[in-house]
Amino acid sequence: MAGKLLRRTLASLAGLALLAAVAGCHLMRALGEAPSEAEVAAYGKLPYFRDGRFQSPESLPFHPDRSTGRGPSSWLRFALPNPNAPDAPLPKLLLDASSFAAVPADLAAWWLGHSSLIIELEGKRLLVDPVFGNAAPIPGVVRRFTDAPIERDELPPLDYVLITHDHYDHLEYATIRALREKDVQFVVPYGVGAHLRKWGIDAGRIHEIGWGETYGAGDLVVASERTNHFSGRTLGRRNTTLWTSYSLKGRRYRVFISGDSGYGEHFRDIGAKHGPFDLAFIEIDGWNPGWPKTHMFPEEAVRASLEVGARAMVPVHWGVFDLARHPWDESIRMVADLAAKNGVRLLTPRMGEKLIPGETVTGAWWETVAAP
User: Fold this and answer.
1) Domain ranges of the chain
2) Is the per-residue pLDDT at 171 higher than 50?
3) Using CA atoms, how far apart are residues 21 and 42, in angstroms rounded to an integer?
């Protein structure tokens, strides 16, 4: 009897050890890969790369004593019940592959929540910062307020995937793995290609560009420009990869994707160089007095929209994750009020809603959700 119990115990322990090993392997792969020594040597020629790290145009101060918000201030908050989450389901339109036309439109977009987007521009379809799960390398941490409006395996045919930087709320291991057999090109900042290659994307489909550089020609040009931010999927690799905003230039239409950024003079420069834009997807959430230059405050987001020359502003980087300890709808309420006061045309589609500028009528849908 004792022998049978011992065998069962050993079998259970072996099973747990196997599960831990599998989980550990998954975690290590999800962390990604650092750029090679040859790549780092090449980055040394860039004016914004120094001492083995990419440099933000402006320093990013951190003031723990000035941090504000509801809930614990430690990293433990990402695994605890969230006092800032909505207490009712968020409205959204569910999508599948049949929701998209065989030929992409001249200009249309779908906000999938947070910073994830599908953009159709003059016959091309682009997927931006696709994250369909949580925003951490392990389950149960940095959980979503709501599921994405589309499943990974229901994505329509794509021409390009654009990644603004390698933080977990913008670059997801499982999604990149799901796209590895698809006929799609990846446009990413310097260094991010190392992650993609580790995850099974063929090097010939990865196009890495830096600030002031472009990819493509003719009907669609993707331009990379600077932002005030940082990168890294582990503490030891902070700023070993680049972060960026994107300007998409077709023959008739132009689209701006801010990526993550604190406010700075670069928005005015981008507007002068690439604007005006028919649509500008501007981040509005993640701000906090404790890290005042890392993300934009609502008034700064509206100012940035004006300075890049946006004919219409679409708020992104909100509605899915609590990254700054304020109520889920605080930023959008503030931005909507400021946009109205400053003459900014604000377009606020629900997650999964098709947005066609000049046709789609959007409203303050967050006001229909009960406050937490």
Assistant:
1) 97-368
2) yes
3) 36
Asked whether 233 and 104 are in contact (CB, 8 A), the reply is no
Name the residue among 303, 300, 311 with its Cα closest to residue 275: 311
**How far apart are alpha carbons 211 and 217 in whole angstroms?**
17
Question: Which CATH number does 97-368 carry?
Answer: 3.60.15.10
pLDDT at 76 over 70: yes
Helix (H) or strand (E) holding 281, with range, is strand 279-283
- 258-286 burial, b if ≥16 CB within 10 A, otherwise e? bbbbbbbebbbebbeebbebbbbbbbbbb
How far apart are the C-alpha atoms of 193 and 241, rounded to whole Å?
9
pLDDT of residue 372: 45
Q: Residue 321 is which amino acid?
A: F
Please check the confidence at residue 1 and state whether its pLDDT lies above 60. Answer: no
Dihedral (CA of 107, 254, 195, 294) sign:
negative
In this prediction, residue 18 has a pLDDT band, given cuts at 50, 70 and 90, of very low
